[in-house]
Amino acid sequence: MTGGHTGYFRDVRIGVIGGTGLYSLDGLDVVETLAVETPWGAPSGPITIAESGRGFRIAFLARHGPAHHVLPSEVNYRANIAALKAVGVQAILAFSAVGSLREEIRPGDFVLVDQIIDRTKGVRADSFFTGTGVTAHASFGEPVSAALRALVARHAAAVPALRAGGTSVCMEGPAFSTRAESNLYRSWGADVINMTNIPEAKLAREAEITYAVVCMATDYDAWRESAEPVTVAEVMKTMKVNAGNAKALLLAALPDLERAVYCDETAALVQPEAGSMQYAFQQPPEHHAAAAGRDKLRFIFPAYFGA
Ligand SMILES: CSC[C@H]1O[C@H](OP(=O)(O)O)[C@H](O)[C@@H]1O
Ligand SMILES: Nc1ncnc2[nH]cnc12
């Protein structure tokens, strides 16, 4: 145990969440595999700790489990984020397979979204504070880290097409959208659609973890009159190529990311999120000591709910 932190503490500051078609990290040496338990239950699978050639460590988690056995609505997002936090993660680069809502975003293109529209249906646990007796409201107007997006965008040359900016719609699923819904999201100005950005991005923000998601277009969803609506077969066919490009992008960006989280004394990359929840609490700190969920919250926030 370190500084009131969890027994899993490892100081692995970089986390990667792989989505559909991205179930492992290649090109890095795996040094440890952790079965982490959190106060919110178990994450989707083991956390793999890998080491880069430069001696820095990266934690990897497959969002739907290593065999993709967890539906998007049934992912334990709280456990996933809490588990990454427990091993020391300060910045998460997530990957997500998405449908394109724009002709110009072709299957195979990557988009670093900067906005998210929540179309989930309230069935997902989306806050660490639920049931704890502590009221907190994270700032979420900018749901994705601008600094992490900019860092990744500098490595656009590693993939065929990478757009810096765009809006994703996170739908509930598991069935894909109707044509009318797909057109509705287009009329709202959305660029891509998936089923996992929310609550993942929200929980990362609550956990004070810097978060960005690389959205990898696999299909044109259901809006195009001239084409058949999306199927899983179509998604997985495109993901075969996308997965290779995702790994290339990660390996290209990793040296910069390592410098930013392990070597920069100003901590400029993670600084906007680190400590951000101190402004989110409704009640004064004295209240936290008596809160029913204090022990649970200490797992994520040793600084606010310490012994
Ligand atoms: C298999 S298509 C629908 C599935 O793909 C995306 O997964 P992820 O975001 O984890 O890459 C989408 O969000 C759905 O969960
Ligand atoms: N069209 C689509 N809708 C929702 N999630 C997706 N993931 C990949 N393609 C998708």
TrEMBL record:
This is S-methyl-5-thioadenosine phosphorylase. It comes from the Eukaryota. It is an enzyme of class 2 (transferase). Keywords: Glycosyltransferase, Transferase. Its EC number is 2.4.2.28.
